[in-house]
Design a protein that fits this description.
It contains eight helices and four strands, in the order ααααααβαβββα. It is of the alpha+beta class. It is a peripheral membrane protein.
Length: 181
């Protein structure tokens, strides 16, 4: 039975996260994993090369050693295990899942805020604090987007939730109310 990528990412990230918690190394693991993820994102063919038969095993091992040269023993062993089990193509997904577990454990929420004009840092911070309070998060990491079509106000999207405080929505609701009455 073949496992899907989400299941693989979930299982491996869970095991690694549990180890990180046990060793009190969650932040360090995450930092190392993010660096490795970036290498694989920047070089999408790397996982295929490490998984395929184009390179001899000794060259693959040399490449793995180079990749993990500055990594902790735990991360080196983890990457070696992924290689041994033919899971190098799952590395990015595993790191994404690990980061999601980290964020969940720290009550960190990622959200996108859309505004009609570019927000100042102070405005973005105020929105992040208000949103954190609303969703019970310790921290909100905002990405910003400008869309003049919303006219004014903001729309905040996070985890399949949308909080729409845009003028465009208010006008639409007003229009509906006037038409229905």
């Amino acid at each position: 039975m073949s496992l899907d990528n989400l299941t693989i990412a979930s299982r491996y990230s869970k095991a690694l996260f549990e180890l990180a918690v046990e060793k009190d190394q969650t932040e360090a693991f995450l930092a190392e994993l993010k660096q490795l993820r970036q290498v694989f994102v920047d070089n999408p063919q790397l996982a295929e090369v490490l998984s395929g038969s184009l390179l001899p095993v000794d060259q693959k091992q040399t490449t793995l050693s180079t990749l993990t040269d500055h990594a902790s023993e735990y991360i080196k062993n983890f990457i070696q295990m992924l290689y041994d089990y033919g899971r190098m193509s799952n590395l990015v997904g595993i790191v994404d899942a690990f980061e999601a577990r980290f964020d969940e454990s720290r009550k960190i929420v990622h959200a996108e805020v859309t505004s009609a004009v570019k927000l100042s840092d102070e405005q973005a911070d105020a929105i992040a604090k208000a949103f954190a309070k609303r969703v019970g998060a310790n921290q909100v990491v905002l990405s910003r987007k400008v869309d003049e079509a919303i006219i004014g106000g903001v729309i905040v999207k996070s985890n399949n939730q949308t909080f729409d405080g845009s003028v465009a929505l208010q006008l639409t609701n007003l229009r509906r109310a006037l038409i229905n009455n």
